[in-house]
Design brief:
two-stranded antiparallel ribbon, Rossmann fold, transferase, 7 strands, five-stranded parallel beta sheet, 14 helices, about 300 residues, P-loop_NTPase, Sulfotransferase domain-containing protein
Length: about 300
């Protein structure tokens, strides 16, 4: 069994805004839980484009009526992401989306939600090699809090420490094992893989929404997915950055969004960090086949 997230470390990552937003949660809220780099911007954009209520509890203040208002101090971040930018504009304001169910973004482990009457969880998962690499790239460019900053080199970061365990790889295992266990106690629980969202979004989202009694047509979901393509989301960010950066080259939040992107950077040395038995066991629960440790045959399960 994978390690559990360290509750003390996890709660140390809880901002005042997020803690306040937790007090607003109820049975019509669905936690959208993922490690960073797993595709929150993709699922959030699709849900918004489909007229559904996805909220970023890190940068919005949740309201009792289901709506949420962007916090001004996070405006530069929100402008870069198409759905958040449109939501903050008059055309994409609260009246343009149905308030319930409310889908609440979270990178926190489930201990943060203990005792809260939420209605369920959508677990968003991505191949840990791609997810952790993407997370490192994001934090290297945009990390602001001291704990959010990372070494420039990916391997140096992989050595640890992690956010709520000894290292980032163990973070991934602990996070997804903990959420899989927590999900068993919710009325609604769904696992959505980033790779499936990229390749067949309508087929995976239709049953997930149907379970919540949300009636959205396949055509609406198809159009929402097309509006959330990497090309469109990157074009939006490029326009915002070009306008604000006075022509200087800036890092991008919408980087590549590739499936199996790890094949372009993996080395034998880096592969060793992803051969941990606990990581392999948890990854297989979500359909990912990672290499076994040297000298150990990998289970076909």
């Amino acid at each position: 069994m994978a390690h559990r997230p360290d509750s003390t470390l996890a709660r140390a990552r809880l901002s005042e805004l997020y803690a306040d937003n937790l007090k607003q949660l109820g049975p019509r809220d669905i936690v959208v839980a993922s490690c960073g780099g797993a595709g929150q911007s993709l699922i959030g954009n699709i849900l918004f484009e489909a007229g559904l209520n996805y909220v970023d509890a890190y940068t919005e203040r949740l309201q009792a009526d289901g709506t949420a208002v962007g916090v001004r101090t996070h405006a530069a971040y929100r402008d870069r992401l198409a759905s958040l930018h449109d939501k903050d504009s008059e055309a994409g304001g609260p009246g343009a989306i149905r308030p319930w169910p409310r889908f609440v973004k979270s990178h926190h482990p489930p201990e943060i939600f203990d005792g809260l009457p939420v209605g369920g969880v959508w677990i968003i998962v991505r191949d840990p090699r791609d997810a952790l690499y993407s997370l490192h790239q994001w934090r290297r460019s945009f990390g602001e809090e001291e704990w959010d900053k990372v070494p420039d080199e990916f391997e140096d970061w992989l050595r640890g420490p992690g956010d709520f365990s000894s290292n980032p790889v163990e973070d991934w295992s602990a996070f997804y094992q903990a959420w899989e266990e927590q999900a068993q106690g919710y009325e609604h629980a769904t696992v959505l893989r980033f790779e499936d969202l990229k390749q067949r979004p309508v087929e995976v989202l239709e049953p997930a929404l149907r379970e919540l009694a949300v009636d959205v047509t396949a055509d609406t979901l198809r159009a929402a997915a097309e509006a959330s393509s990497f090309e469109r989301m990157r074009a939006h960010e490029d326009a915002v950055v070009a306008q604000d950066a006075a022509g200087e080259r800036q890092p991008r939040m919408i980087r590549k969004g590739a499936v199996s992107g790890w094949t372009s950077w993996m080395t034998p040395g880096l592969a060793g960090y992803f051969s941990d038995p606990e990581l392999g066991a948890v990854a297989r629960q979500y359909g990912y086949d990672l290499p076994a440790p040297a000298g150990q045959a990998q289970s076909a399960g």
